[in-house]
Design goal:
114 residues, mainly alpha, 5 helices, extended
Length: 114
């Protein structure tokens, strides 16, 4: 592993362990949802209606771990914090695996073409 790759992994791990700030800080400051993470209900409350395209696409994707939280919205804060870290680590692992597989396939394809 090169020095820059090591720095990348360290940075990704730091971000995964800082991700619970997204749960803790809004509770600390009595804020609502994170900007841009609104569902159709929140959009309707803000705008008075839900755009047709959003209505059609709203149920297209369901996250594997809803709200990055294994315990549901009413779970204890500690459960939510651990869930965020675990979700981040799972996401990093999946993204790294996909990138690794694609890079191996591209290298193999390049070797076969030469």
């Amino acid at each position: 592993m090169t020095k820059s790759q090591r720095k990348l992994w360290i940075g990704l791990l730091i971000m995964a362990f800082l991700s619970p700030l997204g749960v803790y800080l809004p509770k600390l400051f009595h804020a609502e949802e994170a900007w841009g993470e609104w569902g159709t209900e929140a959009i309707e409350k803000m705008l008075g209606y839900v755009p047709e395209g959003m209505k059609k696409m709203a149920d297209l994707w369901k996250a594997p771990i809803a709200d990055y939280n294994f315990g549901g919205e009413e779970a204890a804060l500690s459960t939510q914090l651990y869930s965020y870290v675990i979700s981040g680590l799972i996401g990093i692992t999946i993204a790294a695996a996909v990138i690794y597989i694609i890079s191996k396939l591209l290298v193999r394809k390049e070797k076969n073409n030469t």
